[in-house]
Design brief:
The structure holds 3 protein chains of 3 kinds. Chain B is an alpha/beta fold. Chain B has helices spanning about 40-45, 70-80, 95-105, 110-125, 140-150, 170-185, 195-200, 220-225, 230-240; strands at about 1-10, 15-25, 30-35, 55-60, 65, 80, 155-160, 190, 205-210, 215-220. A 6-stranded mixed sheet of chain B has the order 6-7-8-3-9-10, sandwiched between helices. In chain B, strands 2-1-4-5 form a 4-stranded antiparallel sheet, covered by helices on one side. Chain B starts with a strand and ends with a helix. Chain C starts with about 25 loop residues before the first helix and ends with a helix. Classes of the chains: A alpha+beta, B alpha/beta, C mainly alpha. Chains in contact: A-B, A-C, B-C. Chains A and C meet through helix 1, helix 3, helix 4, helix 10 and helix 11 of A and helix 2, helix 10, helix 11, helix 14 and helix 16 of C.
Chain lengths: ~375, ~240, ~425
């Protein structure tokens, strides 16, 4: 009885506090003649978003959606790159090669202990914006054009019918899957080494190569051409995007590297000893015993780093990359009501965070070791 | 079958093995006992190179243990090992635990590996647990799976490193029974254990170690009834 | 059965272990050129590392124009702080050095006594010089740029006072909680020295000083909130639990910059009419505290979960009240084990204070951007120099703290066994 009473009072106090905040806020806003609803989202934005076809006559709601897209663009690629780099560095930290080991440790200690914001701004102001203008741009191997307008990398340009090639790609995937199954069965039946990855990859590549020429080369690999004021062809990464992406990648990779190293080290020594004792080779020991267990251990902390990366992508605001935070900041400066705009911003990040947490939980549950 | 000559081993400044000489014949069952820290485990861990000996020579089934990786792999294939802490792979089922090495090292096909694995599981009397995960089993069952896993490679020699020390009392017997049967089937075995009943019943020879050296070697009757060394007497007085 | 066993000889005196130090050639073969793959790796890495070292070294020692840092070192450290009141900062540093030195000395004495009495693990050996390395490097770099005899002498005085207080503390020996109180009192006194009696309020603080203030103030204020939230999250009352979980997950789910925007833009609207909006420093601090408490709560929750259930049961069996059980049995044990986690959170907060530059505070990062706009240095691309300097200052502090926290973690880990 006492418990229920206490909880009721507690909830009442919290509710009154929140209500009070809400009342003062709406009162203050009304007095200042600022609207207190969310209908402002239907107003025209009044600003353009660089590197997108967003027009300033579109609504603020659309602007938020574009911002979310841009957040996703930098966060997803950042997650992929940071994972690859982080795993490489983490494994390098355990290398038997002294130089590799020390270089990886130096990388981790250097970047882990510096604010990610400084890294991002350094890439932006210190490197990308100080590159020469396009007329004097550097070209690396005639493939990448580097200038203060950003990085232009070669990309595929569609010239023919993509549909036919799409069918070819599908067939290639199916054949690769078939090769995979076939090698697995050979391995099961005879015990011969399966080399599944080699076989499936080879089949896929072969089909794609043959299909590419058979369907009349639907894509051309276009290297960027440097003009006087602009580049033609290729895919351009703006200095802002490149700085944010690189900063997030390098910083997050230094954290992921520590997690990878820690998880490999935390697989009990007895596991390696047992693997050795039954005669597995070093590679087999890693592949079948150590890595599967290290992977399980590393899933929650790595997912946490992914979350941090998504949240840190909000630092695009400092380098004028128009992700959702920058969009919010600009729209507030363009007279959108600050309170509502910030609430929308927080809701957007909660959406991102909760969806990542949800996926992690599902994966984690499937990976949990079965015990009693 | 196994020949240790003048084997010494240091951990930093601490000398774990001092000039150990031991010669074990085919089908012989040797029980090693001694106080903790006496180097028993270190000795048998040197035999399949889980520890590297610093001095002396170890020859297993005609192959000398050197830094040559191929020799090490060869020896490990011939020597099965059972650990105090079982060290089963928790992410694999019992069957997968047993077939992993035969399939990837011996290159047996799946049917043969599974069939053999079931044979070994029947031998350790838990065929019905084949598709469970190790952590779902009791300690005694886990240790029997570990024995089956070691046997699956069809080793010529089995090493047991205190196989019953981590078990609850009621589970010790089921593991010892399996080991006894194995000994009767003619397996060459080195067993580090404090189970003196088992030693008396099964051992061909007893080895007593203390402070990193072999203090006394003898037949069980001799060892238990009439030990020569003072340190052996003291140890037996404490343990029996 | 040909087994020789020498049973009659006495135990031989321990031989020397075989020499483990390899001659350089063998060492290189084992660690650098083991296989052909290793050799390739070594060569590639050596080339890349040498190139990087050359570029960085050449930049730092030859190309860089450090003049901008030399002329602005005071700006970078305190920004708009009135120059005629700078003595207050030095006085505060002296107070801090004295209290930190005394607290550390007293703790060290206690630990030594514990070890002598056989409780607690012996400390790992590491020379004081090595442990303080990053901080000494930082101080040396700052003094190098300051090029001022006065600053050097004052720094030496701060150092000597710290060492003196340490030696004094070693004769006193205090328990951890008392030592923490001494340090807290020192922090409060240092704060008073700067602010009180016609001093300088925090709205005029800036530069590295503001960075440190926000980080220290943020963690100290977050701690009580975090503990309450953690206890609430573990409460048996569903209503309390739900509210705490909602708070924690809300603030952990959004980026710090969104929280800072919120406190910068929204706090003004949440106050009743007639109440003045607090200064931007205060609003930033509120944002940092709101955000950090959620993380502190999760760290403390981890510590609470680590306290064995048997402890609570034993206390219940003794008839202690729930409040007593929490404050006397559970919390002390939990808080001890969360110290490394809290240090880690403090390091992130220290790095994250750089974000207040975005909402317009002039802490270290924003000063280092602003000084490149001075007429003498405008448009000369000196941002590289200033950002590297700022990065180094952050790095030295964070690296030093993370190393110390690893030491602490190992020690606590050893203590538990």
């Amino acid at each position: 009885m006492l418990r229920i009473a206490f909880q009721a009072v507690f909830l009442l106090v919290v509710a009154i506090f929140l209500l009070y905040l809400w009342e003062t806020a709406t009162d203050n806003l009304r007095r200042l003649g600022i609207r207190t609803d969310f209908r402002y989202l239907r107003q025209p934005a009044g600003f353009a978003v660089p590197d997108s076809d967003f027009r300033s006559s579109q609504s603020l709601f659309d602007a938020v959606l574009v911002g979310m897209q841009n957040t996703a663009k930098v966060a997803l690629l950042g997650i992929v790159l940071a994972t690859v780099l982080g795993v490489l560095v983490g494994v390098a930290r355990l290398s038997s090669n002294w130089l590799v080991r020390r270089a990886a440790a130096a990388y981790v200690e250097a970047f882990r202990n510096v604010p990610v914001l400084i890294i991002i701004i350094f890439f932006w102001l210190g490197i990308f914006l100080r590159l020469p203008p396009i007329s004097r741009a550097t070209e690396i191997l005639d493939l990448v054009v580097v200038s203060n307008r950003g990085l232009v990398v070669p990309w595929f340009e569609k010239v023919g019918s993509g549909a036919a090639f799409g069918v070819v790609a599908l067939v290639g995937l199916l054949l690769a899957a078939a090769a995979w199954l076939w090698r697995t069965r050979v391995f099961d039946r005879t015990g011969a080494a399966h080399h599944r990855v080699l076989w499936a990859g080879g089949v896929l590549l072969a089909v794609l190569a043959v299909g590419f020429f058979a369907t009349g080369r639907p894509w051309v690999f276009q290297t960027p051409e440097r003009g006087e004021l602009a580049t033609a062809g290729g895919f351009r990464l703006s200095p802002e995007y490149a700085a944010l992406l690189l900063g997030l990648t390098i910083y997050t990779a230094s954290h992921i590297a520590e997690i990878v190293r820690g998880s490999i080290l935390s697989v009990p020594r007895g596991q390696s000893e047992a693997a050795n004792a039954v005669g597995l080779s070093g590679f087999q020991r890693m592949r079948h015993v150590v890595l599967p267990q290290a992977f399980r251990i590393s899933v929650p902390p790595v997912a946490n780093q992914y979350l941090n990366l998504v949240k840190n992508s909000s630092l695009g605001v400092a380098v004028s990359y128009y992700e959702v935070t920058k969009i919010t900041q600009v729209s507030i400066s363009q007279a959108a009501p600050a309170v509502q705009a910030i609430l929308v911003l927080m809701a957007v990040y909660l959406l991102f965070s909760l969806s990542i947490a949800l996926v992690t939980n599902v994966i984690n549950r499937r990976l949990t070791l079965k015990g009693r | 079958m196994i020949d240790l000559v003048g084997v010494s081993k240091w951990f930093g400044e601490f000398q774990a093995l001092r000039d150990v000489d031991l010669d074990i014949d085919r089908q012989e069952v040797v029980v090693v006992c001694g106080p903790s820290g006496s180097g028993k485990s270190t000795m048998i861990r040197c035999i399949n190179r889980l520890e590297k000996h610093d001095r002396g020579r170890i020859v297993v089934d005609g192959i000398e243990l050197s830094d040559d990786l191929r020799n090490i792999q060869e020896i490990r294939r011939e020597v099965g090992m059972v650990f105090q802490q079982f060290n089963l792979f928790p992410h694999l089922t019992v069957l997968e635990n047993i077939t992993l090495a035969p399939r990837h090292v011996r290159r047996w096909n799946k049917a043969k590996a599974n069939e053999k694995a079931m044979e070994h599981l029947r031998r350790v009397r838990i065929p019905e647990q084949a598709h469970k995960y190790p952590l779902q089993l009791s300690g005694g069952q886990q240790q029997r799976v570990a024995i089956a896993r070691a046997l699956a490679m069809e080793p010529k020699i089995m090493l047991f490193d205190e196989p019953t020390s981590a078990l609850d009392p009621e589970m010790i017997k089921e593991v010892l029974d399996v080991m006894e049967e194995l000994a009767e089937s003619g397996m060459t075995m080195i067993v580090v254990t404090h189970e003196m009943g088992f030693a008396r019943a099964v051992a061909d020879r007893m080895v007593f170690m203390a402070d990193g050296e072999i203090v006394e070697v003898g037949t069980p009757e001799h060892f238990f009834t009439d030990p020569r060394e003072e340190r052996t007497k003291q140890f037996l007085a404490q343990i029996l | 059965m040909a087994t020789r066993v020498d049973t009659l000889e006495p135990v031989p005196a321990p031989e020397r272990p075989p020499e483990r130090r390899l001659p350089p050639r063998d060492w290189a073969r084992e660690n650098l050129f083991g296989t052909w793959f290793d050799t390739v790796l070594t060569v590639v890495f050596a080339l890349v590392v040498a190139w990087l070292l050359y570029r960085v070294g050449k930049f730092a020692l030859v190309d860089a124009r450090w003049e901008i840092i030399e002329r602005n070192i005071t700006n970078l450290m305190v920004s708009g702080f009135p120059r005629e009141e700078l003595w207050r900062v030095w006085a505060a540093l002296l107070v801090l050095a004295a209290s930190l030195g005394f607290g550390a000395g007293a703790l060290a004495a206690t630990r030594r006594r514990e070890v002598e009495e056989g409780r607690g693990a012996p400390p790992q050996r590491a020379s004081a010089l090595r442990r303080a390395g990053p901080i000494l490097l930082l101080v040396a770099v700052l003094l190098w740029f300051a090029q001022s005899l006065q600053a050097t002498l004052l720094t030496v005085a701060v150092g000597l006072l710290g060492i003196g207080a340490y030696l004094l503390g070693r004769r006193v020996s205090l328990r951890a909680t008392r030592a923490a109180l001494v340090v807290l009192a020192g922090i409060a006194l240092a704060f008073a020295v700067v602010v009180a009696f016609g001093g300088v309020g925090w709205h005029d603080w800036g530069g590295f000083m503001l960075t440190v203030f926000l980080a220290v103030g943020g963690i100290l204020l977050s701690f009580p909130f975090g503990v309450l939230l953690a206890l609430g999250r573990r409460s048996s009352l569903p209503a309390v639990r739900v509210v705490c979980v909602a708070y924690i997950e809300l603030f952990r789910g959004v980026p710090l910059i969104a929280v800072l925007f919120m406190s910068a833009f929204m706090i003004g609207f949440l106050l009743p009419p007639g109440v003045d909006r607090p200064s931007l420093v205060v609003r930033a601090l509120i944002g940092l505290v709101l955000f950090t408490s959620a993380y502190v709560a999760e760290i403390v929750r981890g510590g609470l979960q680590g306290v064995p259930a048997g402890q609570v049961e034993a206390a219940q069996a003794l008839g202690l009240s729930p409040l007593r059980i929490t404050t006397r049995i559970v919390l002390p044990q939990a808080l001890r084990s969360v110290i490394p986690g809290l240090v880690g959170q403090f390091i992130s907060l220290y790095k994250d204070t750089s974000l207040v530059a975005i909402i317009g505070l002039t802490e270290l990062l924003s000063v280092s951007q602003n000084i490149t706009k001075q007429p003498d240095f405008l448009a000369q691309g000196l941002i590289v120099e200033t950002l590297l300097f700022a990065a180094f200052v952050y790095w030295a502090g964070a690296y030093w703290m993370s190393r110390e926290s690893q030491r602490l973690e190992r020690r606590l880990g050893l203590g538990e066994r």
